[in-house]
Fold these 4 entries.
Entry 1:
Amino acid sequence: MLRKNLPHIILPDPPEKYKYINPIKSPNDGQQTPQRDRKTHAEHLIQSFDKAWQIARDDQVVYHTTRNGVYLEFRSSPGYELITKSLEDLRTKKVRLCNVRKRNLPKEVDKETKPVIYATVYISNDSREFFLKKLNDYAEKDHSTGTPKNLKVVNSISDILNASLIKSFWVSEEHLIPDESPQWCEVWLRVDSDTKEEIENVINIFDDLLAVQDVTSKPGYLLFPERVVKLVHVNGKQLETLTRYCDYIAEYRIAKDTTSFWVGMQTREQTEWVENLTERLQINKESLVSICLLDTGVNYGHPLLAPVFDQSDCHSCNVLWGVYDHDKHGTLMAGILVYGNLDEQLSSSGRVFINHKIESVKILPPKGENSIELWGLITSQGVSLPIIKAPERMRIYCMVTIHPPKKI
């Protein structure tokens, strides 16, 4: 039956019927595990595990480390998922998943460049049998249905290796890994519980290691569920040392630059950077795609916005309000819609391509606020004004202004 309250939805064709398909069983290359020869695959993984474990233990002997476990890396086959939820022991918390990464193999290795999933796992010295039991059960035991035990998780594993001291923990882009020159990096430490005692214990152990290795760090830390983040100033060799001597490493990331570098500049320096960016802009003036911002207006004369904005694309729901930004919010939003991450654009040296137009509609008054009864009408006007001016454009509307709910 046609819904009378939805006149804008028109279905001219009669409905078609299809049989129900269970989405869990639907084919999906990204979710399937490869077909394996059970005996051959089990032998390969057991040998790989034993070899990786021995290499990790030998490394501890050579460097006289006092770590209580090893880090191993599990890999998927190209184009297939790795079932990571079965790679840790949440009961004893002696086998923990540190991180999961997706990387494309080099073209000389895989011409189709299908992604490979990598998982780095910490295994305590007394939990070696956790994985060997899974592998042996896969090789020798069946469920009542006749399928091998641990079939999905074991078939999803292509190889098991000793974890690399940096790459197996580096989740940022690999070209950002520090070389001989130290850089600020985030060290994400694993904590087995969010209790104050556990967090302080991990932080104290790590701070002691930093002191011994003479590594500079920022005071304090950030706390996330099962993770503590410290900022350290390290080169590549120092990162390797931290991995080699610490049981709690989960991830390494390059520290994100803050805006303090830019806002702390003198006006003359800021102007030079802005001029450099605007000279590198390549704007598609013929584009029929537009992002329409419904906000506090835009100061389209701003040096970073002037090359992109056409004054005729700035509107207002009330001519008495004008089109300029009285609050700065609309102008700041416009900058995001044009450049995305402005820090990356300013820091780069290549061309910056702008393939869309920007339109602004001022929907908020310079003083006071709109009557709640007019919110719908003003929003509707804001949507219509740019369409009247340029009906041929394809639009994406952006309205990030919010207001606490009120009763009318």
Note: Residues 174-254 form a domain with the Alpha-Beta Plaits fold (CATH 3.30.70).
Entry 2:
Amino acid sequence: MPTSMPHSGIQENVKNLRLLDMAVQGIPEVELAVGKLGRAESALDPAPINMFENVIIYKPEYLTDADGRRLRFRVDRNGNYLRDSTRQLIEDPRGQYVRQWRDHIRSPDDIWQEIARVTKLPGVTSAPKLQPIETRLIMLQTGMRAPMGIKVQGPDLHTVEKFGLKLEPLIREVRGVKEAAVFAERIEGKPYLEVEINRRAIARHGLAIQEVQDYIQAAVGGMPLTQTVEGRERYNVRVRYPRELRNDPELLSRIYIPSRNGLGQIPLEELAEVRYVQGAQMIKSEDGFLVGYVLFDKESGDAEVDVVERVRNHLEEK
């Protein structure tokens, strides 16, 4: 599950997802690569839009039939495979197997190294290798999307992120830890458009906070004003500004709000301040504390318990 930076928007993440799929699909040993970003409209899946989930299916090492049994094909005296008039390989019980992997690919781990090499995109992190069911079990057990990790708890998000970033280079120094899979979550940095209403300014026009917020909501996000009935079907009729009048912060400052004092239409910039601020892309908490994760994975051949103990001892020494 690679991720991009918190400030990346939906268009940038869609582009990154397509680049990842194309890069992985270009590996000869890969049969299929499909990625998705974000989550469904469900509270059970908290994944933000900058989190990708890529499902990759490898080709079998040797050509097989529908039941997974290796097939043999006819060869000549020089070991070259023979073909029929339609250029298809000729099955022969006494022939040789057809290997689909390249010569330097000896195991699935070698394919994963190829995947890690071609998916190095600017602003996109690496991710540990997990099986689909294994991923679900790990996330249900720990809340993290990696086999191993450190939960950093703190009083505020800035402190949690800052401490996690300090742990990231220290964990990479531990023997048995896969450097490319070490990643401290970037919590802050998501851009938000904040509208701070000037209470004194709206009071001069006889307006309440709720009234101004309703006008902003209707203009920018839309608001259902009525409902149309077509047989057994019901459809909300939503009203909002056209896209060309709401796709820029400066244009939002020109949303007109009617004054109750008979002064006509008042632009929003006279009643509120519209500005960009940085905030959290997702807020997590455990045991009453804000929490962030530092994720990592082990190299093949090392036991998870041993790697965790090495990381703990290394951090205690620091």
Note: The chain has eight helices and 14 strands.
Entry 3:
Amino acid sequence: MHVNWVREEGDNAVDNPMWDTHAKNADRLQDVLCPQFDIGYTALINDLDQRGLLDETLVVAVGEFGRTPKINAKGGRDHWGNVSNFVIAGAGIQTAQVVGRTDAIGGEPVADRVAPQDLTATIFHLLGIGHDTLFRDRAEIPHHVTQGTPISLLLGDRPATDQRQKAEGDISLVPSYTTEKLRNTSFEDGLPLHPLAVGKRIKGWQAAPLAADHKSPAGLTVRLVENAASAAGKRHVALGFGGEDAAAAVSIPHGAQAILTQELRNPRSGQFTFSVAASGGGSSAAFEKFFLQHFTCRLTIFRYSNVKKDVRESQRLGVQIFQPAYAAGETKVAGETSAPQRFELSEFLGTRQGNANFSIGAGIGVAVIIEKTSPGVLQIPAGKDAHAAFLRVDDVQLDFVGKQRLGNQK
């Protein structure tokens, strides 16, 4: 039985399809490929063993070739024929061992080298077909079934050792598997906001300037507010000025920003709808006088320009400007609302032409941004709570409908 890995919804890429990770190699392995393979392959082996079928079933997991030992400009690994690997178990295999060894960077074999034809010879051998068997084509010309030799180090009827290596990986690097494009969309998972990290693969929400990290010289901060009623639970995110340090005067220059952002898990070609439940918060007077008059709120879908993964150095793929209404909470007066509004940005990412490539580049992300867009410097006097104003984000949603590949359309 031959089982191929399937393409996910919207996979029209040539730079990152299935296991062909020419871009975002580490993210794709960590978020998508390895969790599915680890669970699926382990379950198959265990099931065959429990049913008493493993001793007569050969299970081979193999790709076409290896991947380059060096990472390319998109964080990917390209085709590499010098070294590859496979996993084999079941009938006639001496398990619990690694056969072969490469150099320190995984670029060249240095011990117990075997060739692809040796794998096919091993498979034929275990099927009871000699590796030197001949067959004739339609012109009666004889051919060997393989040019290889069975890998003797792999053959046996028991494990190579009873000792087991303790797992030493960091399980925190592999979050629970999910098909959702965004994590912690309601901010209720108990996870903190991360500082905006350049050159790192942060999983979850990043923010800048982060209130828990330092005081912003421009007076703007992003903070996770806990133990406060929100549309989704007891947490929301506030982007603005004032708040916990509302007594101090602030000066906010033109162009100053507060950013809440997250990289999408496994982006593909298709229709993306990014939305937030948001409202104005803080002092109603300060919100009307300062926030609405001097700041612009926007939703953004973007492509990272390079592996630094800095939203401030990205290509905008879609943007939606919005203006939230002030939410008064339990009490309200005329013109005020007690519930957040939902604002959305919908954008098709990809091409409309057949199976044309959609490049994810160094990754796709979304962001909620407030920016001081009025000219000059905004001077806000000191006064506890009198000048606190912010955009309150109660929850985030991202809906995705993948582009169909030719041949899948009905």
Note: Confidence is low (pLDDT under 50) at residues 330-336.
Entry 4:
Amino acid sequence: MVIKNKYYPFLEINLSFILMSTSGLFGKIIPLNPAVTILIRCIIAGFLLLGYLRLRGGLNIAWKRDRWFFLISSILLSVHWVSYFQSIKMAGVALAMLSLFSYPIITAILEPYFFKSKHSWFDILSSVIVLVGLAIIVPEFSFGNRAVQGVILGLGSAVLYAIRNIMNRRYITIYSGSAIMCYQLLISAAILLPALWIYPPEISASTWGNLVLLSLFTTAIAHTLFVKGLLYFTASTVSILSCLTPVYGIIWAVWLTDERINEGTIWGGLIIVLATFAQGFRHYQKQPHVVGNIR
């Protein structure tokens, strides 16, 4: 169906960021090993999308041709989520989300290698500014500090997230966002299945409720809207729109949990968000929107 309202993709992708911002909250309050949490998240969300696609159509893919894309992107997704949730456990929601949302800068650095373009001085400057912001938010420069370890994990997660987003852009014109997300979730679940034996979970009714909310809203709906957004906007344009996601996430955590943020986190976070916005806005001016149909 062709888009009738030009603002519809814009509203969709902003809704995806609001929903995704709850991931930090769930990562903090769900008392399970991150690998188990992500396994259950992938199973529930994957089968929800599978049911949706069986009713709507669009489930078929060219597995033989594109199997390496689905396998590699699923590995990136599963490791990205596990490392991000572990980062939340170690550093708290604020530091983990701010570390993860340096990914637009990482995207700008990595995209030239995928699309055979050149780096700009602005990319390098933005990277340095983000590093300054990260230096401000960490409590001390010691690898033995648990918060610092969490920030490093968050940065690793950001790298994986950036690579997956770039890979998705190559295939979003071939498959629907729902189909890509469905296969990535189910393959990720298969990858993480051993976690049930390594970390046997004891899950209460309230934890099951949070897992369902995480799987339905934060995952199935939010990430499908996000992946579909890559059909209409460049990855750099999307990075502008994503700038407020860590702000939303920190607000959720402060409001609903015992999360506390200090002055260093506020100033360092502001530097990271502004650098990310400037980077995305610059690329937005240079690159046209990717136009397409709703799939």
Note: The chain is about 75% helix and 0% strand.
